[in-house]
Write a structure and sequence with these properties.
This protein is an alpha/beta fold. It is 31% helix and 23% strand. It has helices spanning 44-55, 87-90, 99-125, 144-161, 196-209, 257-260, 280-284, 323-337, 381-398, 424-442; strands at 7-12, 34-40, 60-63, 79-80, 137-140, 165-168, 185-188, 192-193, 213-215, 220-226, 229-234, 237-246, 264-273, 290-293, 299-303, 310-314, 346-356, 363-366, 372-375.
C-alpha cells in the first residue's frame, strides 16, 4: 500500500506488533455436546480464565468470534499500569465520601496493584518471551491544574497500590521525556510494559499445552438457561455448559444484551513510525518509560522494544475510522509533543476497541442467572483483563470463598442506553473543545 505525505511507501494497515506474530487462521473445531465452563471471548481475560481453570482440572471451551488474537489483545500499547489507571473512577465524591467507600477504594487499588504482579508471574511461569520489563510510567500533566490533581493522588496511590509515585516538576521533566509539552508530571515507578502480541501468543501456546478446547470463528448467538444448565447456541452448533464466562469486553454483542447496554465500546488508534535516526529515539524517552497524559482526549506512547520506533496511540477519533483519518491526527498529536519527529513517516496504523463502563472502573461478577462476566478494562486491558479473567476462574474454582473487590460493585447502566454509542462523536468534539479551553486558560 503506497501513500504520500506522512505515510511510508510500505505502509501497512495492521498492528506493528503483528510483524513479530500475526494471528493465524486456524480451522474451526467441532464443539462438544457439553463442557464444564464455556468462555465467550478469546482475549487476555478469556485465555487467562481458561488457563487457571485447566490448571485446576476443569474442562473448558473458549469461543472466539474471529481468529484467536485478532481483537484488542494484540492491538494495545502494551503498558501494564498496576493500579494507577483507576484514578479517574475513584476520584468522584460519590465513591469516597465516607469511610466504607474509602475502604472499598483502597481495596480496589490494592487489587489493581496485584494485576501487575500477576502478569509478571504468568510471564515467568509460562516462559513467555514478550519483552516484559518494569520500566515505569510518566504521566504528563496537560495543565498546571492537572499537575496539582496528580500531586493530590500520590499518597493514595503509594499507600494502597505501592505505586512508588513521585512528582516531576516541569523544570526536571527532560529527565523523563524530551518534550516541553507538559507542565511536569507524575512518575509511577511500579509500572511495566511488554509486547502485547507476543504475550498473547504465549498465553495461546499455554492454553494448547493445557489441553484447552479453542474454538475459533465461533460466534455465540444466544445463551439460555441458568447456572448448571446453560445452553449456548453458536454459529457452529449448540453446547451445554455448567458455567459461562463472558469475557468479550469491547466486542460485547447481542448474545448478552444485559451486559452490552452497560458497556461503551471506544476505538483506540495507534501508529508506528519508521526507525528513527540514531540518538533521536533515545532522546525522546531516555529511560524507556511508557507515557500517558491527562487531557480528556488522551494520548499514550512508548518506544518499540528495540528502542528504534515511536508507537503512539490515542483517541484520534472515539469510533473506528480508516488510517487515512486516524494516522494524520495521531501524527499531529505526536509532533505537538515532539516537534523533532515531524519528518518521521508512519509505517503502520491500526485500531482496537476498549470497553468503558459508566463508573470508569473494571468489573467482574454474575448476572441473575449465574452467568459470570469480566468486563470494562477502561483502557488498561493488559493488566486488568488478565487479572479479571484469572480471578473469575478462581471464583469458579473456589466457590464463594474468594472475593475480589471488583465484584463488590454493581455494574452500572444508563437509562436510555442500549449498547450503541451514537453519542461518541459528540463527546469527542466536546472533549476536544474543553481541552483547548483548559490549555488556553492555563497559558
Amino acid at each position: 500500500m503506497t501513500k504520500g505525505g506522512i505515510f511510508h511507501p510500505e505502509f501497512k494497515s495492521m498492528p506493528w506488533w503483528w510483524e513479530a506474530w500475526q494471528p493465524p487462521a486456524t480451522p474451526p473445531i467441532g464443539l462438544p455436546t457439553r463442557t464444564d465452563v464455556a468462555i465467550i471471548g478469546g482475549g487476555y481475560a478469556g485465555l487467562n480464565a481458561a488457563i487457571e481453570l485447566a490448571r485446576a482440572g476443569i474442562d473448558c471451551t473458549v469461543m472466539e468470534a474471529n481468529d484467536f488474537g485478532f481483537g484488542a489483545s494484540t492491538r494495545s500499547g502494551g503498558a501494564v499500569s498496576g493500579g494507577v489507571s483507576l484514578g479517574k473512577g475513584l476520584g468522584g465524591k460519590r465513591r469516597i465520601n465516607d469511610g466504607a467507600a474509602e475502604t472499598l477504594a483502597e481495596r480496589l487499588l490494592s487489587g489493581a496493584s496485584d494485576s501487575l504482579a500477576l502478569v509478571e508471574d504468568i510471564v515467568k511461569r509460562e516462559n513467555i518471551e514478550c519483552f516484559w520489563e518494569r520500566s515505569g510510567r510518566f504521566a504528563g500533566a496537560y495543565t498546571r491544574k492537572h499537575y496539582d490533581q496528580l500531586s493530590a493522588k500520590v499518597e493514595m496511590f503509594n499507600r494502597n497500590a505501592d505505586a512508588q509515585c513521585v512528582m516531576v516538576p516541569k523544570a526536571q521533566q527532560h529527565e523523563e521525556i524530551g518534550s516541553d509539552f507538559y507542565q511536569g508530571g507524575m512518575l509511577v515507578q511500579r509500572s511495566g510494559k511488554l509486547h502485547p502480541a507476543l504475550y498473547y501468543k504465549g498465553l495461546l501456546d499455554a492454553a494448547r499445552r493445557y489441553g484447552i478446547r479453542l474454538a475459533s470463528r465461533t460466534n455465540v448467538e444466544r445463551i439460555t438457561g441458568k447456572r448448571g444448565a446453560f445452553r449456548v447456541r453458536t454459529s457452529r452448533g449448540e453446547m451445554m455448559a455448567e458455567q459461562v464466562i463472558v469475557a468479550t469486553n469491547g466486542y460485547t454483542g447481542d448474545a448478552t444484551p444485559q451486559l452490552k447496554r452497560k458497556l461503551i465500546p471506544v476505538a483506540s488508534h495507534i501508529i508506528a513510525t519508521e526507525e528513527l535516526p540514531d540518538g533521536l529515539a533515545k532522546s525522546l524517552i531516555p529511560k524507556g518509560r511508557t507515557i500517558s497524559d491527562t487531557p480528556r482526549v488522551l494520548c499514550y506512547y512508548r518506544l518499540s522494544p528495540d528502542g528504534k520506533r515511536m508507537l503512539f496511540g490515542g483517541r484520534a477519533r472515539f469510533t473506528a475510522v480508516t488510517p487515512e483519518v486516524s494516522a494524520p491526527v495521531l501524527h499531529r498529536f505526536m509532533t505537538d509533543r515532539f516537534p523533532q519527529t515531524k519528518d518521521a513517516k508512519v509505517t503502520h496504523a491500526w485500531t482496537g476497541n476498549v470497553a468503558f463502563t459508566f463508573d470508569f472502573l473494571p468489573h467482574m461478577g454474575q448476572v441473575k442467572d449465574g452467568m459470570h462476566y469480566c468486563l470494562g478494562c477502561n483502557g488498561s486491558g493488559v493488566a486488568m483483563m488478565t487479572y479479571l479473567g484469572h480471578r473469575t476462574a478462581q471464583k469458579i474454582i473456589g466457590g464463594g470463598n474468594r472475593v475480589s473487590p471488583f465484584e463488590e460493585l454493581e455494574l452500572p447502566g444508563q437509562a436510555g442506553y442500549g449498547g450503541t454509542p451514537w453519542f461518541l462523536p459528540l463527546v469527542g468534539s466536546y472533549y476536544r473543545l474543553r481541552d483547548r479551553l483548559d490549555r488556553f486558560l492555563d497559558s
